[in-house]
Specification:
Chain lengths: 208, 208, 208, 208, 208, 208
């Protein structure tokens, strides 16, 4: 039985919701990263019983996104005029590790651009502050969990290619696997051109 | 004997008071979530010996509510011009877990809209940041406690339907059980159209 | 021998000083809640080696008072223009629990209204955020301590009536016991109409 | 041998320096409370390895002083325009307990009024927020230490009179002992009319 | 096998990325220091599971850089108008010690000047607040790791010269080793004259 | 072998660098206190793995200096317009105790006045908030370490004279030892009239 609820988000109607892959001693799981924005002063809230490494991962993802704001068409004033909340359900399950890095980055990019996230896509990989994607562990278990959950496409670090090559082919059949070196490739794959229906319209306070 | 006082709130005269269901090793209990607002700068205070997961649950409920302010007719300026306090009596009993999520959200929605909460209604369920309702444990014990306390109607996650189906029918007789997938359904059921008597009138500081 | 000094406040000359009842393994005691205000920015200071539950109790009392400011004739600007300090002597004795809730609320109401507190009155009871009064433990021991200290009148939750009924009548003789359900009844009994001699005159900074 | 240096302050040239009496398992000691003010925004700094109770005692003394500012001729703006530092040498010796309360209050009153402190005077007693003086322990040991240090006059709570009466008279001979109930009596005895030489001149920032 | 990824940064296209040398019980490793700036108010964020000593090292490096702003042609306003993030991948590996001091300083100098960092260069050394370079441990292991990673040039404290002289010459062959006494020598070697492609253009908020 | 680097600062070219004397179970050592200022808002940063007592000592030194600003010709606005960092290399060695008090004070006085510190001078002594100098331990070991490091002149509390008198004369030969009672005597000896080359020019933000 699954710890996390694989049916929670079956579509991609909401911005800021992205599917990640977790790995515990009893096997792989999918999980969801949820982000939301509301008028504020740029405060960041993290919830879902996240450990220190996972919190640093979210903070690093946000710093990276801020340096890429122009390239992604994000008005930089939005960062200081909206509060950001990143939550990982289920809320009582402790979670840690760096492997949700690219999932968090994609969630943030989606919520700030209001662009849709590709459906039936999952990803796992550490990010660095300057946008590299590092390999992570538990690839076999994560792939099996992704298939059980109906995922069709995966994003991994190129350095995890060798882990995939060790898995029996029938487990991977039907899955498209994208190997990436850098975060911009992740966003090229994961973020659709279209915005979600009724996208947020960001309002910036004029001072002075 | 009950830990919490089932007669504390027998009516729905006050905005921001909602009945939840708790579950300990010695059985189910009802509890109350109380919210209040007073002029301030948007500070959030949580009390009642709440554990980390329960605190995160309240914070997640508030973030969700902020994203739904327009839809609920809440002036967004109220969030920054009033301090919010959420308390769970009895104040010396430690409480934790995610299952008060929808109860907290309903309490917040009621206090910010000043709308009445349906009477003799109780609820239990985790919320997610984007408004999903997740199943929780202890359903049988909670149902028994609700009946003992005179509750007539319950809100649960659809994923808890199977737990209800395992309970002997005579325990459920007389109870209306609502199964929901998302938070907006909770509010459709729990919040009455009418405001409480002498509703608060929110005053917003004009700056500049 | 008493831990706390029962002769500390024999009169009601000062606003913000209220007599409570405590209960330890060696018996009941009276204690005093002291509040003071001084020009500031609304900071709250708690001292007297208070435990977490007792601190939350003070914070809950303050939130309740703020929601009742209009009804009590308190100018809401005072909360943000004066710093509040609540102290419980003796300063080295650790104290905890929710039972000083109504005593704290009365102390706050007195200091912000500058109204006198009824003399030879003591009280014990938990408050909730929306103004209910919950029962507390150690009633018999507290009643004995109150009598030893010369107290003539007591306020308790109605839910503590059964504890009083179990006490031998000669211990209660000469004591007036008030049973209340809600905080407004506490203030009706405890706060006199008269202000203290030389009441503070609150000065509000005009901004802009 | 003494832990603290009894010759550190042999005169009363500096405002804000007051002699207290401490008590450890190896006997009594004198100690000094030092206060200083410098232009700032009202920050309070405490140093000298003070325990929680002693820190609360300093904070309570400051709150009391603020409520008495008018009576002592202190311009209330000084509290927000100067930073206050209270230090207790020797800096590496841990110190705790409420008995330095009146010593701290006297130190604060002296530094804010720039009035001299009576020389060869020592004191020990807890203060309450509303200005009462509570008895403390170790009176005999403290009296012996005061005499060894050349102290001529002592201030104690009236409730410590019984402790003095149990001491052999030859130890007290030559010492003037003042018993007080309230803090204003302490200041009447301890603060001289004269200001120190070259008193600080407080400068208040005008805003607007 | 290496803990850190030696191929992560094979070129010097990005400002703020510098190669350091670490040393654990199982041998030497190279690591990368990454810095980034984004519009803000001068907040400093450190991530990568850094220990206290390593955090102090980053803070000391930043203080030194600020005192040298004029000499390096950095507009001092940038420090208060941009948030700085320093990250050390991999994010889950705990790291501590002072030996990344000069690497951090070089990373900061590069990101604030947008100048390129010399490629195939690595360094290890503690910095002091006034710009001295102190020797560090594990030199032999670090040199071996540098060679394995394709490093061609090293910067060390002059006080580490004796450690190099104890290493068999064939291990050092092909490596240029620079011995320095002070931080300005480090920057002379490590920072190229050229800026990176598309350098950040710093925008300063005008107040008033 | 020495823990700290006795050759680190052989001259007095930099303001804010002062030599202290430390004492561990394996003998005496010299250490350096480094201070630096950079444009800011008056923040104080302490680094070098300092313990609580040593941190309080730095804070006390700064408070004392602020009260003496006029006498030392320091513009008081500098304290609020520059950030101060005090560092004690080596950064990974834990350090504690009050004996660096006068060394820290001298370092601060030098950096704020930009005056040179006398060369080949070392000092050890606790300071009090009002400028007294208290004796410290390990005098013999510290003296031996000072001589090994080429120190020619020492500053001590007069209360440490007896410790010097117990040392065999040949160890002290060639050392000038200054005994002081108060901090102003320390500065009279340690601070030269001349400023360092290229002294900082302090720039004060005009508000309004
Ligand atoms: Ca990273
Ligand atoms: Ca691209
Ligand atoms: Ca959630
Ligand atoms: Ca609906
Ligand atoms: Ca309450
Ligand atoms: Ca009433
Ligand atoms: Ca007190
Ligand atoms: Ca008087
Ligand atoms: Ca340093
Ligand atoms: Ca140079
Ligand atoms: Ca001191
Ligand atoms: Ca002098």
């Amino acid at each position: 039985s699954e710890i996390f609820d694989k049916e929670l988000y079956q579509d991609n109607k909401l911005a800021g919701v992205v599917t990640g892959l977790a790995w515990t001693s009893v096997g792989g799981e999918i999980l969801f990263i949820e982000s939301s924005l509301s008028k504020g002063k740029g405060k960041l809230t993290l919830s879902g019983q996240l450990g220190d490494v996972m919190k640093e991962s979210a903070i690093t993802a946000l710093s990276y996104l801020r340096t890429q704001a122009d390239e992604l068409g994000i008005d930089h004033e939005v960062f200081d005029n909206y509060d950001l909340h990143v939550h990982v359900p289920a809320g009582a399950v402790p979670k840690d590790g760096p492997s949700a890095g690219i999932t968090m980055l994609t969630s943030l990019a989606s919520i700030y651009t209001q662009r849709k996230v590709k459906s039936r896509l999952a990803m796992t990989g550490e990010i660095t502050l300057r946008g590299k994607v590092l390999p992570v562990g538990g690839i076999k278990e994560k792939i099996l969990a992704a298939k059980r959950a109906g995922i069709k496409e995966i994003i991994l670090s190129v350095k995890n290619r060798k882990d995939i090559e060790e898995i029996d082919e029938r487990y991977i059949k039907g899955l498209t696997i994208n190997y990436v070196e850098a975060v911009d490739e992740v966003l090229d794959i994961a973020l659709l051109k279209d915005k979600v229906k009724k996208p947020m319209k960001f309002v910036i306070d004029k001072k002075g």
